Amino acid sequence: MKRWMAAGILCIAVQVGWSQSVNQDAAKLALMPLPKSVAMGQGELALDGHFHAGFPGSPDAKPDARLDAALNRFLVRLDRECGGIRRAQHEAKDSDPLTLTLQVAGPGEAVQGLDEDESYKLTVTPSGATLSAATDVGAMHGLETILQLVRIGASGCSLPAVTIDDAPRFAWRGLQLDVVRHFEPVSVIERTLDGMAVAKLNVFHWHLSDDQGFRAESKKFPRLTEVASKGQFYTQDEMRHVVAYARARGIRVMPEFDIPGHSSSWVLAYPEIGDGRTLARLPDEYVEPVVELDPTNEKTYKFLDMFVGEMSAIFPDAWFHIGGDEVEGKGWKTNPKIQQFMQKKGFKTNDELQAYFNQRLLPILKKHGKRMVGWDEVLNPALPKDIMVQSWRGEESLSAGAAQGYAGILSAPYYLDGQKTSETMFLADPIPADTKLTPEQQKLILGGEICMWAEQIDSGTIDSRIWPRSMAVAERFWSPQSDRDATDMYRRLRIASLELESVGLMHITGPGRLRRNLAGSSDTKALDTLAAVIEPVSFGEREDHQHTDAYTSLNRLVDAVVADPPARQEIAAEVDAVTDGRSKATGAALRSRFENWQQAAPELLALTGQSSRLSDAGPRVQQLAALAALGLESLAYLDAHSIPPAGWLDKQKVVLKDAAQPSAYVRFVCLPALEKLAEAAAK
Amino acid sequence: MKRWMAAGILCIAVQVGWSQSVNQDAAKLALMPLPKSVAMGQGELALDGHFHAGFPGSPDAKPDARLDAALNRFLVRLDRECGGIRRAQHEAKDSDPLTLTLQVAGPGEAVQGLDEDESYKLTVTPSGATLSAATDVGAMHGLETILQLVRIGASGCSLPAVTIDDAPRFAWRGLQLDVVRHFEPVSVIERTLDGMAVAKLNVFHWHLSDDQGFRAESKKFPRLTEVASKGQFYTQDEMRHVVAYARARGIRVMPEFDIPGHSSSWVLAYPEIGDGRTLARLPDEYVEPVVELDPTNEKTYKFLDMFVGEMSAIFPDAWFHIGGDEVEGKGWKTNPKIQQFMQKKGFKTNDELQAYFNQRLLPILKKHGKRMVGWDEVLNPALPKDIMVQSWRGEESLSAGAAQGYAGILSAPYYLDGQKTSETMFLADPIPADTKLTPEQQKLILGGEICMWAEQIDSGTIDSRIWPRSMAVAERFWSPQSDRDATDMYRRLRIASLELESVGLMHITGPGRLRRNLAGSSDTKALDTLAAVIEPVSFGEREDHQHTDAYTSLNRLVDAVVADPPARQEIAAEVDAVTDGRSKATGAALRSRFENWQQAAPELLALTGQSSRLSDAGPRVQQLAALAALGLESLAYLDAHSIPPAGWLDKQKVVLKDAAQPSAYVRFVCLPALEKLAEAAAK
Questions:
Q1: A654 CB-near residues (< 8 Å, 6+ apart)
Q2: Which of residues 180-239 of B touch A (CB under 8 A)?
Q3: Does position A6 have pLDDT exceeding 60, yes or no?
Q4: Where are the domains of chain B?
Q5: pLDDT at A59
Q6: pLDDT at A62 over 70
Q7: What are phi and psi of B252, to 5 degrees?
Q8: What pLDDT shows up at residue A581?
Q9: Across all residues in chain B, what is the average pLDDT?
Q10: CA torsion, ordered A231, A237, A240, A246, to nearest 10 deg
């Protein structure tokens, strides 16, 4: 159910001529990502027992199967929100007037590409709604928008009168998923794609091979999964299913097979294409010794030719990701044959050998109708300009590529395991307002990709790591550059998060389930209180203390909390209001919050003392109690307009510093706000 | 995580010679279903970084693939509880001593049947655990028991020293699932089977056809799903997958194809085997006109012969359910050809014609190696004694069958849509202690089946309708007849419920998700407060007011609450304690509960006023507030030892009577306790 929320201001390009009141209505919508243009009308369209959606023209003018299926999924979701929709649609006669008319020119490209027309136009008046699009994909985006417009009232559901003209800012809006470090079953891939469709993301970048395993079945090279997958891989039928499932939702699937580095799984299965070093087993962690492909061996290219050909029959996308990152080249340095080859060719560095490898790879990809994508490291002047670079190093590296004429997509700011806030990721722009790139060069920045690396996630935690934060990035990729109001973004994100849940994602229920499991009880009130104000530390901080691999149990407090929980903003806003002297009520809310922390502490301490899985959280509980005392004392001084004794503030700073120490792989999200509160109390 | 709970007494056949203290330890275990015999030992076995599970004998003595997979699933679950288990197992050398030794004589029957030896013996000492079983199935039951024994403490996980000797009381312990009235995807079937394995249930009875649809793909008769499934059916590959998935968990799959009644889907697709009446479309509801098979037509038997043969290749189980219930026979009465046939045969009633049909069916089933199962109505002296009767009419009807020499299973008390308490279902015994059956006749009672009919459920609500209540029935089917302590059953059920969640069931998260969707917010505290004290009314009461079918939106308050919520018992216990004058603390808990109701009421009223989906819940909210006032006033009088004014109790009775009125398809679970409280206050 979507509610029209009072708070926040919609930051969109407001059309000239909007009246003030209409403008305010638009500001209450909860669309995400924001459309290019929204113009409110007067009144609303009832979604009731007369609901009828369909296509204009004769009853025989049927839509293509993809659009028909998309409409059916839409009806199921609308019905869940409103009730009565599926029955109305079932009982409607062809001759009954249409409540929702779909005008879709055609299905779109047989293989979705960068030129796919994803635009749509939606007009809602009190007498009916019309969704027009050039392609199925545009129509599907429009259907998502309609679902976000639905409001439920005492007398039923309706859509506000509105005209929306929408199209994406970037053509490439991706989510990359590593299924190697932890394998994810097809059901997880499916619900990830469902979430992507809600977010209007359109590229699923499937990281299918790495040192730790090979996840794609090859019938030509069966040892890849026999030897190097521990039984965890996708059959060809499953991969075809994923491609079809994605296409049904307007999403391309780009496979990544990471070469010539990150290639231990290839070499364990087929040592003859390796760098000469031998592996007894797959490395579990990324810090363990790894081996690489031999770029000087003709067998390697014959192998890759056959392999790319086989995979091209499964993945119709025009783009093929060859990885290319972090090539250590240790084996290249110690293998005399490789060294001899380099000398002969005049290569001084491994980079030059890798560029040679990529040059040899290019005609192979071309032969199978593919264009090359690689991480930053593939960028080399020796390569032609029709490859694309995915930047994990940052926006500057991306711009440097564009300045040289290479197309690129940005990923560095969108690494989900960095555990950054939605706001930080939302504000990072593939083409910042102050870009130095020329308009022509800017056209080479095709968009971006969110990255979900899997060292620290499993199928129980993945959803809460991806969602809802990816929705904020999806807005960055879709909406105008001028859309930078983080407060309003968060208002809409809270609502979008419920929509993501209702399509099947478990980002809310997953952490709750793990907390019940941790507490050994369905009463997790105390644990929830702690979880609400902490978040996981970044990948690197956790990695410093815990090397996670497929055998690590991801079943501790850090796995049961989420990045950027709402309490961060809420507490900051409450503290701002109190220190500005704006609100008594806010002071009461803050006091009640601190009292909750205080009350939860004894039960939490008992829990951490009883369970080895929570033992490392003990210090965090002590700190929570100390922060509660800091808060309550601060409020008391502020209320009494009295000055605390000398040394009080210093004592509070010690409390804050202690709470900022690393422990249990989690960190508090409220420390800056509490510092501000204590400082205000001390004034 | 399993906690050793202090409350409750374990009701098991206590072995002679147990010391009192050991006996008390056993009483703290949370095993469910209760084993046949449990003897506590001294000390515990650590489950730590030295954990190593395996099979005795040479390293080459590998278990069969089914047992190996079961052990792997066990390790994943144990690892989730304890951490470090998978790594320890991964790093253990074959020569390292075994922490858990599995001694399994053999895989068991190639097709699991009634004679499968499901027993196991488990011995845990501080130096190691040994699980012995004759078959994989017995071993899998033992592995479930081990998981229930795990306790986690400050220093890690352990198993208590214990000796368990276990075997089921009944060989047939089933769950019947209707996938016709609402279709369930394979993922739901899978997690239902996972839950059944936890509950040691061993028969999945798959109700695959009915008037409203045909859910099993037939390649011989493709129109069955083309015409009569609306696209919602299982492919043969999917059915084979379900059979394999079930077998991997020690569960048989018995298909049901309901004939000659409940057969509209057959006849819509193939009118030539019908009773002569025609159908324009599938009936949506069970109250709509239906048609039946023609038992007088030789084509019917040729059809069924081919069909049973085709399905027998998919379902290896020895038993085949032919439905046979609720044959209206309207078409039989109006079809002159059928009437002529009956006259010729001397049949006076439809029952006789149905018995003829079943007699004709028997050799067909036999030919394909199947034995016949049918609902009560198949019972007819004309039929041989090797058929089996599933009683939906009750234990007396079952006993009557047994007295005539027919084998049977009980289902009547275990209809989940009756929304009865776990306690009521738990206490209903297929062979009650006061049975009049001879020991020989008792042997004909093979067990029972829980029934989940699907008119009022969908894939979002099914888990919370089946679980955790089915666990209580599963204990009835497995554990000794003398196990009748409902208080201790509930203690263990709360813990088992978390285990069911951790294998993937959504009986806790599903209703929570729907409440967020109803509230349009992730803050559902007020709605949760109401939901905690109400439950769905029975199938019949809901059906009186709402005819649900596949087009009904199951998205209202009734769908977001569960049968027999814990608050029913909790409030009853708190009221008992207060009225007995036993506990001041309990009075405070009760007061806090009533205050919560009072506080939630305004927010709930606002919600019900805002959303058409909650509008019917308005009266319930008013009643909640009135019950809160009743509770608080009662406590005040009791506290003050003062007598309420004349007429006060009468006024409260009006409040209670009002709250007992039907509305919103839900009912309060606390009315008897509140009546007791008010009466005590008035004394």
A1: none
A2: 187
A3: no
A4: 20-166, 172-385+408-466, 509-682
A5: 52
A6: yes
A7: -80, 150
A8: 78
A9: 93
A10: -70
Q: A350 near A332, Cβ under 8 Å?
A: yes
- B663 secondary structure, DSSP code: B
- B28 to chain A, closest Cα gap in Å: 15
Rounded distance between C-alpha atoms, residue A596 and residue A525, angstroms: 10
Give the residue on B whose Cα is nearest the Cα of A90: B551
- The fold adopted by the segment(s) B20-166 is Chitobiase; domain 2 (3.30.379)
If you classify domain B509-682 with CATH, what class do you get? mainly alpha
Q: Which residue has the tokens 């409409």?
A: A71
Pick the CATH number of A172-492 from 2.170.150.70, 3.20.20.80, 3.30.1390.10, 3.30.70.1140: 3.20.20.80
Residue B264: pLDDT band (50, 70, 90) is very high
CB-based burial of residue B19 (10 Å sphere; 0-12 exposed, 13-18 middle, 19+ buried)? Answer: exposed
Q: Is A326 a catalytic residue?
A: yes
Q: Are strands A128-133 and A120-125 parallel, antiparallel or unpaired?
A: antiparallel
Question: Distance (Å) from the C-alpha of residue A9 to the closest C-alpha of chain B?
Answer: 19
* Residue B312, both tokens: 């027998």
Interchain CB contact of B113 with A (< 8 Å): no
* One-letter identity of residue B506: M
Contacts of B410 (CB under 8 A, 6+ apart): B391, B395, B398, B428, B430, B445, B447, B448, B449
- Please report the pLDDT score of residue B244 as a whole number: 98
Q: Return all residues near B430 (Cβ < 8 A) that are at least 6 apart.
A: B170, B395, B398, B409, B410, B445, B447, B448, B476, B477
Q: What is the pLDDT of residues A287-314, one digit of tens each?
A: 778 899 999 999 999 999 999 999 999 9
| Parallel, antiparallel or unpaired: strands B534-536 and B666-668 | antiparallel
Is B502 in Cβ contact with A506 (below 8 Å)?
no
Per cent of chain B over pLDDT 90 is: 88
Tell me the pLDDT band of B377, cut-offs 50, 70 and 90.
confident
Does A582 lie at the interface with B, CB-CB under 8 angstroms? no
* Secondary structure of A267-336 as H, E, C letters: HHHCHHHECCCCCCCCCCCCCCCCCCECCCCHHHHHHHHHHHHHHHCCCCCCEEEEECCCCCCHHHHHCH
- pLDDT-based confidence at residue B3 (cuts at 50, 70, 90): very low
Q: Write the ipTM.
A: 0.93
- Shortest distance between the Cα of A653 and any Cα of chain B, in A, equals 32
Residue A14 pLDDT exceeds 90: no
* Separation CA A223–CA A313 (nearest Å): 19
Percent of chain A with pLDDT over 70: 96
Question: What is residue A43's three-state secondary structure?
Answer: strand
DSSP B538: P
Asked if domains A172-492 and A509-682 share a fold, the reply is no
- B214-230 burial: b if 16+ Cβ within 10 Å, else e: bbbbbeebeebbeebbe
pTM for this entry = 0.94
Enumerate the β-bridge partners of residue A203.
Answer: A174, A252
Model pLDDT for residues A599-626, shown as the tens digit of each residue: 999 999 999 999 999 999 999 999 999 9
pLDDT in tens, A170-207: 999 999 999 999 999 999 999 999 999 999 999 999 99
d(CA B551, CA B533): 29
Q: For residue A671, give the nearest of A572, A564, A536 by alpha carbon.
A: A572
Burial class (CB in 10 A: 0-12, 13-18, 19+), A171: middle
- Tally Cβ neighbours within 10 Å of residue B653: 15
Give the whole-angstrom CA distance, residue B555 versus residue A80.
6
- Chain B residue nearest residue A47, CA to CA: B612
Fold classification of B172-385+408-466 (topology level): TIM Barrel (3.20.20)
CB neighbour class for B353 (10 Å; exposed up to 12, middle 13-18, buried from 19): buried
A521 and chain B in contact, CB less than 8 A: yes
Choose the weakest-confidence range: A373-387, A518-532, B119-133: A373-387
